[in-house]
Specification:
The chain is mainly α and 123 residues long. Helix content is 64%, strand content 0%.
């Protein structure tokens, strides 16, 4: 019987990963991190758009179903307004980040690979 320290749990050749983030062909940590951040921002943008559509549709149904009730009509209008403002904030966020990068002297702050390339360690 083998000792626990002698057991080989990893497959031959090691773990390779899966999907675009686990692609071992010529990728380094910075590129993998950049792909991860890009995917996360894209996913959050899609979620924000879906939330806007949901808020807009439920607000429109609320307006149609208000039946003259001023409080229900006002709540439905607020829901639509909140959805529009949220979508505008999500879209403007990318421009705000670019402006901050421009003001800090980082021309392409959204490209993480380039950003890490600007960092130099001096001995």
């Amino acid at each position: 019987m083998k000792n626990l320290a002698q057991l080989n749990l990893a497959p031959n050749g090691g773990f390779k990963g899966f999907g675009p983030l686990g692609d071992p062909k010529g990728t380094d940590g910075i590129n993998i991190f950049s792909k991860f951040i890009s995917s996360a921002v894209g996913l959050m943008t899609i979620i924000a758009i879906i939330w806007f559509v949901f808020s807009f549709i439920t607000g429109a149904i609320g307006i149609l179903a208000s039946g003259g009730d001023k409080q229900a009509l006002e709540n439905a209008k607020k829901k639509i307004t909140t959805g529009i403002v949220g979508l505008i904030v999500v879209i403007l966020a990318i421009f705000i980040i670019r402006l901050i990068g421009f003001l800090l002297g980082l021309p392409d702050i959204l490209n993480i690979s380039t950003l890490f390339g600007l960092i130099q360690i001096k001995p």
